[in-house]
Each structure stands twice: as C-alpha cells, then as structure tokens.
Amino acid sequence: MLERYFVKPQTVDRIQASWIGSEIEQYVDWLAERDYSAASVQTRVPILMAFGEFAWAAGARTVPELPDHVDGFTVEWMAGRPAVRQGGRRIAMRTRGPIEQMLTVVIPGFAAKSRRRYPYPFVEAAPGFFEYLVSERGLRPVTIDGYRHHLGRFELFLARIGVVKLSELSPSILSAFVADRASEGLQVTSLLDLSGVLRVFLRYAHREGAIGRDLSGAVEWPLAYRLSSIPRSITWEEVGLVLGGVDRRSPCGKRDWAILMLLVTYGLRGREVAGLTLDDIDWRREHLRVPERKAGHSTAYPLSTSVGEALVDYLQHGRPQRNERQLFFCAVAPFRPITHGAVASRAAHYLRKAQIDVPRPGSHTLRHTCVQRLVDADFSLKTIGDFVGHRSPKSTEVYAKVAVEQLREVALGDGEEILG
C-alpha cells in the first residue's frame, strides 16, 4: 500500500526500516480504506516517522510505550518551527492528531486526548442520576449532554473550593457557583438552564439521601424578561453577501451552499439540517420532510426550485459515495455525517467572511432572518410559528416588535405619518 502513495522505492524502504514501520503501514491501510487523499497520507507519514525516531531516542522500545511520548514530541516539533508556533493550538493538533489516530489503530483500547469523553460527574456521590434522567424523566441525549456539561462545571467548582461531599453543600455555596458562572460571561438563558439543572440534581440527591435537606429552593432563578432582546437577524442584502462568499466549484462549497439555502429558505435549526437523510426528500412529490423537530412533530415543506437545485448539485457532484442514508457528510476523509455543530460553524464562517457583524453568528442567525422576512411579508405569527417549528407561540412573539422599515421611517422623519 505504501507504493500507492510514495513513488520512490527509497522512501518506501526508509518507512519500512523504521522500528514502527509495520504500524505505519497498518495505519496507511486504514487511511486508504476510508478514502483519505494521497496528499493527506503523504503529510502524515513524515510526522509519524519523526515521532518514531523521537520515541526511540527517549527510550521507547515497544509500541505500548508510544503514548507516553506524544506530548513531548508535540512540544519539540512546535519548538523547532518558529513560524509554525504562530498557528498555536490548531497546528499542535495537526501534529498530535495523526499520531494519536495511528495509535488508536495499532493499540487496542487507546483513546486520543482530543476524543476522550469526560466522565459523568458525581457518579460516586449521586449514582444513578443520569439513568434517572433517561428512565424517569425521559430526557433526550442532547438534553442529557446539557446536564453533563453544567454538572461537570459544578463538580470542578466544588473541588476548587475544597468541598468533598454533597452533604457539605449550602445555599451560599450554590449562590457562589451561579455567580461564578455568571462572571465568566454566561448568557441569561444559559444561567436559566444551569439553575434548572441544579434544582433537578439537588432534588434527586435529597431523594437518594446524599444530602440531608432539599436545597433546590436555594437556587434562585436569574432575572430574565420576555421579549427583552431582539432577534439577531440580518438583512436580505446581507444574505446575498453571505451566499456570494460560497465557492460552489468544490464539493465543500456545494455542500455549504445547500446547507445555507436550507437555513435561509425554511429557517431550519442546525440540528434539523444535520439530521436530514436521503429518505426525507420526496423528489416525485417535490416535498422536503423535516422529522423530529424540537416541538416533537415533523414538518413537510414544498421543495423550492433553488433548494432542489442546490441539493441535486451536491448529491451528484459533492456528496461522498457512502452507504449511509444521511444527507450531508464531511467534505474530507474520514467521511462522517456532519453534526449540528458543523452546520453552525459553516454558517458562522460565511457570516464572518462577508464581514457581517452579528452577535453569536451561526445557523440561528439565518433562521432568525427567515422568520423576520416572513414577519415583514405580513404573515400571521401563528403561520410563522408553524412554518419554522416553534414549540410555543411565545417563541414567535419576539418578532412582532421588530418592524424595521417603519422604525427607519421614524428615525429619518418626524414620525407623524406613522403615529397618525
């Protein structure tokens, strides 16, 4: 397999002569099976060769010893390249990534640092809590991830202040934790989520006897006022700038174009775009089905001509040849289905590329823009809410206070005609 990527026999001989040559070959076979490009393989192998030499010089003599030398090699590799150091963490991951990926292939049970999942918090202090969330409360995995995140930060906070047992908790400690998170810049909505998570956890801990009294009432809800903010939408002209930044000649560009068209045409959430499958497109009836929406229902849309053309172009010339039914995949190997985080990241990329200043740029920016355009077209809030899959009419009400054109007229004139 090495001959497929390295033309010179001397290069192949040098790789095979390395004390980890067989492991490198095994890794190259693994890459080939997953359709990695030749350029990717040719970039990774020299790093692995250098890593093998470093580990040998540091005393490694067996493959299981290699993980102990990954950190040291990464530091030395970065230190010897001043220009590379400017890339910071990203370049370090490009160095460490191939090494750890090879180790996952050749060492059973090895877990790369970049892919290790943090353990569930409070597994000893409150055992069974996350099973309780699933079996008794019926929460979805994405919601449980939110519990995992907030409680993980709570566990770290308690360790930092020296609290060892849940029985040591007090209202002042809980207030200090919420204040600490607020000082780190957490938004009010996130603080509300945090408070809700703490309350559920504290009630469970009391029920199971981990704490002597129910402290859930000691967690105060942060003040949050409905309709206190305005949606972070952009103008339709700015949407044109965002779409104009997509290079539709490449497979990645074809995919991103289709994603952006879905976001701005139907106001889909990033998670809904990432969850689409080939079975959700009914070409004969020209329908697009969006299953498992946040409100617990599905929606069927007429498939617009522009969205249909974008999807056809991607399916014919951009989508990797995969057996899975997911619609959107990573543009480079390994060709995995994209995540909702990737959808948000691509939307943010093109917003920044168009130099559009918006708070928290991402897929929801285009969703808000879609809703705002429907508001400007005088559709009823009930119709708009049904179209974009709002769970409650209250989610749509915020758009009622944003009448952009009328506000501009008031700002430019005396406003008498508007008020009259």
Detail the topology: elements first, then pairings.
Elements: H1 2-5, H2 9-17, H3 21-33, H4 38-57, H5 70-79, H6 82-85, H7 89-106, H8 129-135, H9 141-161, H10 171-183, H11 188-207, H12 236-244, H13 251-266, H14 270-274, E1 281-282, E2 287-290, E3 299-302, H15 305-317, H16 340-353, H17 363-376, H18 381-388, H19 394-397, H20 404-412, H21 416-419
Antiparallel strand pairs: 1-2, 2-3
Helix pairs in contact: 3-4, 3-7, 4-7, 5-7, 9-11, 13-15, 13-17, 16-17
Structural notes for this entry:
By secondary structure, this protein is mainly alpha-helical. The protein has 21 helices and 3 strands. A hairpin with an 8-residue loop joins β2 and β3. About 1% of the residues have low confidence.
The biggest beta sheet is recorded as: 3 strands, antiparallel
Rounded to the nearest angstrom, the distance between the terminal CA atoms is 79 Å
Biggest sheet: strands side by side, in what order? Answer: 1-2-3
The multimeric state of the shown protein is single chain
Element string (H = helix, E = strand)? HHHHHHHHHHHHHHEEEHHHHHHH
Helix-strand makeup class: mainly alpha
Helix content: 55-70%
Question: What's the β-strand tally?
Answer: 3
Q: Total helix count?
A: 21
Strand content: under 5%
pLDDT < 50 stretches: 83-88
Rg from alpha-carbon coordinates: 26 Å
The average pLDDT is 85
What global shape is seen? globular
